[in-house]
Amino acid sequence: MIRALLALFRRDLTLARRIGGGGLMGVVFFLSLVTIVPFAIGPDLNLLSRIGPAVLWIAALLSGLLGLDRLFQADDEDGSLDLLRLSPVPLELVVLTKCLAHWCATGLPLVIVAPLFGLMLALDGPALWGVTLSLLVGTPALTFLGAIGAALTVSLRRGGLLLSILVIPLAVPVLIFGVSTAQAASGGTVPFLTPLLILCGLSLGALALAPFAAAAALRGAGE
Questions:
Q1: Exposed/middle/buried for 208, CB within 10 Å: 0-12, 13-18, 19+?
Q2: Which of 176, 141, 155, 156 is nearest to 64 (CA)?
Q3: CB neighbours (10 Å) of residue 95?
Q4: From CA 17, how far away is CA 5, in angstroms rounded?
Q5: What is the pLDDT of residue 126?
Q6: How many angstroms separate the Cα of 87 from the Cα of each of 17, 111, 143, 207?
Q7: How many angstroms separate the CA atoms of 195 and 143, rounded?
Q8: Where are the domains of the chain?
Q9: For residue 42, what is the DSSP state?
Q10: Sequence-ordered list of residues with C-beta below 8 angstroms from that of 145, at least 6 positions apart, any chain
Q11: DSSP string spanning 143-171?
Q12: DSSP state of 88
């Protein structure tokens, strides 16, 4: 079973690189959003540094939605999803593996480039470290929550808009505590560990619950 899951993980990573540029497309979109903000706000570095963590988190959320509708839809179109449903491997583990592969292809590159893009928003060292750590801890939750929306819209063509409507409200708590963690790292009234631990709890909760919810949705779509 482990060998089958590793093969699925490698397959999804390979497909992510071949289709739409994988993580590169998300990084370019991430860069576009971060670049637009200083032009809209103006040359006020103090203002940019205050809103920088929020800008990076919103950009990461929107970048993560790119290609999320194809998480299960591509497999549904070529018949692979039916084979995955009938395989002896539990569908919950299949969903978990596909989510991990999707995060490695799209979420991890955003975490890596976040410090560089943070410099464009005049973030200081502690803020850069805080926002990078918060993205590393919090973006898996966005992926797992997105998997629920992707499973619910797997049978819909052009379901990307509906997926965004479903996922964004669920992602609001992750966004709030992600920004709070980044801001607490550079000083504030809230201790740094408080929002960080809550963010870890949200990611672990999504890790525990999302595969079961997404698998149930996929089974329902196949009936």
A1: exposed
A2: 141
A3: 27
A4: 19
A5: 86
A6: 25, 34, 24, 22
A7: 19
A8: 2-222
A9: -
A10: 167, 170, 171, 174, 206, 210
A11: HHHHHHHHHHTTTSTT-HHHHHHHHHHHH
A12: S
pTM: 0.89
Distances (CA, A) of 77 to 30, 73, 74, 103, 146: 29, 6, 5, 22, 19
Q: Cα dist. 151→24, 57, 138, 179, 219 in Å?
A: 24, 24, 21, 28, 9
Distance CA 208, CA 215 (A): 12
The runs of H, that is alpha helices, within the chain are: 2-18, 23-41, 45-65, 70-78, 80-86, 91-102, 108-119, 125-152, 160-185, 193-222
| pLDDT tens digit at each of 223 positions of the chain | 788 888 889 888 887 777 655 567 788 888 888 888 888 887 778 888 888 889 999 999 988 888 787 788 878 777 788 788 888 888 899 999 999 999 998 889 899 999 988 888 888 888 889 999 999 999 999 999 999 988 888 877 666 678 888 889 999 999 999 999 988 887 767 788 899 999 999 999 999 999 999 999 888 876 6
State the Cα–Cα distance between residues 159 and 168, nearest whole angstrom.
14
The two three-digit tokens of residue 116, written as one number: 């560089």
Contacts of 73 (CB under 8 A, 6+ apart): 150, 153, 154, 159
Contact yes or no for 182/130 (Cβ under 8 A):
yes
